[in-house]
Design brief:
Radius of gyration: 25 Å
Oligomer: single chain
Number of domains: 2
Number of strands: 23
Length: 431
């Protein structure tokens, strides 16, 4: 019987391989060319006197046409980049800036298979290599191709860093991707305030205005105080998104039935959910305008923040007021709907300082300062947020001014305002 079973198994394998041979013969590999797929109609372009960069992110269907494989299902997202060099320098594109964990062309081909047959596999490998972006970009030439990045949903921040001898250039692109209900898309920033409500402030005026802001978030009715607003970020929305994306921060999905189910499933079974919603807190009379999170391997642990768009302006840039804390676990509670919430690290200053250090390495942090906020709360006498989690703090708000990079670590400046004893710009955070 054992011998008969082996014969049957071998016969089935031959049939399966035969079927694969019919599907994956060399003649069956005929992907569409770049010129045939219209994804470049959506490309974004940025330029200076020397360089022009164009970027486009194909849809899942366009990727299937271009590569004759479902790369998106394998969580590989090809990004098309074109660099036109109008200078006398030779430039090199740094793929690690676009994605620090990018895939090589042959790794991509291997990840999605290529059949069992050598001719088909070689065709695929040769094609994927030819489609990849290939350095260098010589003077007065143009190079285009794909960088094989990890899949992002909802949005894609494409960072193109180019280096030449004693030269470095940053180009940042913000691309929205259909298919996921991201929280900030529910807000129309253009109509949130009337034009006459905006106030341009000088540095001293800004400090006073930030210190006079309400101390804390609230519940929806505005009756109970929640987590303190311990963060201010100054910069355009796209600059904020780019700086955070460079350090692995992700958007949050809007809270709706599908997202809630994903959260519960991740909690119960330990599956990964990178875009888990952030529960609503209220400030300026509304829930957060957008959130960012830096998750670990499961839903239980993440650093996360909420931001609200204000009427304040500094050097022509929007001022966002926010709240940051670190999630260290998940628990059931009757104080939230759905009845699942994160437990925060009581030391909320640690999360604030960790963000500053993180954004220093984004090379988009220009200035750092601190203003008085909620006031001191000692570990021996902590306060509590809306779900009953205790927290302690030195009571300051961090003020972070973003700008186009690259900004070297030793070029980050202090606003010269208050400075907590536990933080010193230019040195490690002391606890």
């Amino acid at each position: 019987m054992l011998r008969i079973s082996r014969i049957i198994t071998f016969s089935l394998l031959v049939i399966v391989l035969g079927g694969c041979a019919a599907l994956n013969t060399p003649s069956s590999f005929h992907p569409s060319s770049v010129n045939e797929v219209r994804f470049r109609d959506r490309m974004q372009m940025k330029a200076d006197l020397d360089i022009r960069v164009s970027v486009a992110v194909p849809t899942a269907e366009e990727v299937r046409q271009l590569f004759q494989a479902d790369l998106i299902r394998s969580e590989i997202q090809p990004v098309w980049v074109k660099v036109e060099n109008h200078s006398d320098n030779t430039y090199y594109l740094l793929s690690t800036a676009t994605d620090s964990n990018y895939f090589s062309p042959l790794e991509t081909a291997y990840a999605i298979g290529g059949g069992f047959f050598e001719d088909y596999r070689k065709q695929m490998e040769s094609y994927y290599r030819a489609m990849g972006f290939r350095n260098p970009v010589l003077p007065h030439t143009a190079v285009s191709g794909f960088v094989y990045t990890n899949l992002d949903e909802g949005e894609k921040v494409v960072q193109v860093d180019l280096i030449a001898e004693e030269q470095v250039k940053f180009f940042t692109f913000f691309v929205q991707i259909p298919g996921m209900r991201v929280d900030y898309r529910m807000i129309d920033f253009n109509t949130l305030y009337q034009e006459e409500q905006f106030v341009e402030l000088h540095e001293d005026e800004l400090r006073a205005a930030l210190e006079s802001l309400p101390c804390c978030t609230t519940d929806q009715e505005g009756r109970e105080l929640g987590d303190p607003t311990n963060l201010v970020i100054i910069g355009d929305f796209k600059d904020i998104s780019a700086a955070f994306a460079r350090r692995g921060w992700l958007p949050a999905e809007e809270t709706y039935s599908t997202a809630v189910w994903k959260t519960i499933k991740s909690f119960l079974f330990g599956s990964r959910y990178r875009y888990s919603p952030v529960s609503p807190l209220y400030y300026f009379g509304r829930h957060q305008d957008f959130a960012r999170q830096k998750p670990r391997h499961n839903i239980h642990e993440r650093n996360h923040l909420r931001l609200w768009y204000s009427t304040l302006r500094y050097q022509g840039k929007p001022v966002f007021v926010g709240q940051i804390s670190r999630d260290i676990g998940v628990r059931f509670t009757m104080k939230a709907r759905p009845p699942v919430t994160h437990k925060i690290d009581p030391d909320i200053d640690e999360a604030r300082h960790a963000l500053i250090e993180d954004l220093v390495f984004s090379q988009m942090l220009a200035k750092v300062g601190f203003v008085k906020g909620v006031g001191n709360a000692r570990p021996s006498n902590p306060r509590a947020n809306l779900t009953g989690d205790p927290y302690f703090t030195d009571g300051y708000r961090a003020v972070l001014v973003l700008d186009q990079g690259p900004i070297a670590l030793n070029q980050v400046k202090s606003l010269g305002w208050d400075e907590p004893k536990t933080f010193h710009l230019g040195s490690s955070v002391g606890r």
